[in-house]
Specification:
Ferritin; Ferritin-like; 193 residues; tRNA 2-methylthio-N6-isopentenyl adenosine(37) hydroxylase MiaE; mainly alpha; tRNA-Hydrxlase_MiaE; Ferritin-like_SF; 7 helices; single chain
Length: 193
């Protein structure tokens, strides 16, 4: 369903499980960044009413996810750690050439956001299916569904703003790039690590 061209090994889930505070801290900040991205799209494309409505919903939902992860950490006696750089998102953003064309810039941004959500969804699935902790298992299974919805929303909007064949060509190129990038990953207790 997600169209990802590289599957996460279950060994990543084992690394994440033994570094639970690290993975939860990383996850919390990713939710915050996702909310910030949705707000930034609203600011930069405020004339796009339907997009603004949907990005508002996503921003609120992502901040709710941030709060949920943080509360889970507090419940377990953990403290939210410091934010760390997300080189995964940075590398994806650099895939597309810079453009001054607002429509192309929006499509690129939507495709990158779609891919980040798709990979998060896939990682949450792997994590939930390889977790003995029932609370975390259920928590990540529920979040997986939400991330899948965000992925499809971003991709649908990209296809709405430009010819689908052109968008799909860009999407497939981005997927191939990300698959190669993911072959080097899977060794860190980070959602995209």
């Amino acid at each position: 369903m997600l169209g990802l061209q590289f599957e996460t090994e279950t060994s990543w889930a084992d690394i994440a499980k033994v570094n639970l505070q690290q993975i939860l801290t990383d996850h919390a900040f990713l939710e915050q960044k996702a909310a910030s991205n949705a707000v930034s799209i609203i600011i930069n494309y405020s004339e796009e009413t339907e997009l603004v409505k949907e990005m508002s919903n996503i921003a609120i939902e992502e901040m709710q996810h941030f709060k949920m992860v943080h509360l889970l950490m507090v419940k377990r006696g953990m403290v939210l750690g410091r934010e760390q750089k997300n080189d995964y998102a940075v590398r994806l953003q650099k895939f597309f050439p810079k453009t001054k064309d607002r429509t192309n810039a929006l499509i690129q941004r939507l495709l990158v956001a779609a891919l980040i959500e798709a990979r998060s969804c896939e990682r949450f699935k792997v994590f939930s299916e390889n977790m003995e902790d029932e609370e975390l298992q259920k928590f990540y299974k529920n979040l997986m569904i939400s991330e899948a919805n965000h992925y499809t929303t971003f991709l649908q909007f990209a296809r709405q703003y430009q010819d689908r064949a052109i968008v799909d060509e860009k999407w497939n190129a981005l997927l191939a790039f990300e698959a190669e990038m993911m072959k080097e990953r899977g060794t860190l207790a980070k959602i995209h690590g």
